[in-house]
Amino acid sequence: MSSGCLVPFFPERKIMASEHNRTEEKKTYTVGEIAEMLGISDKVAYTLVKSGQFKYVRVGRAIRVSKSSFDSWLEPN
């Protein structure tokens, strides 16, 4: 008797995939993460991002800020 599942379930693949995601270094920040790191509101963080201080891309409606660009901006000159 079939369980009705068309795709076989491979729990070991799911575990390997989640371990890979944890070890992979993050390349972008969300605006919320930037707001939290800087101790500012999301609204102020969006204004900062839109001002062109660092590189960002849109993924659908979401904004992702380049980690390297933000980290360089954050470092003292």
Automatic annotation (TrEMBL):
Coiled coil: none annotated. One of its GO terms (molecular function) is DNA binding. Keywords: DNA-binding. Residues 29-75 form the Helix-turn-helix domain. The keyword DNA-binding applies. It comes from the Bacteria. The keyword Disulfide bond does not apply. InterPro entries: DNA-bd_dom_put_sf, HTH_17, SinI_DNA-bd. This is DNA-binding protein. It comes from Coprococcus catus.
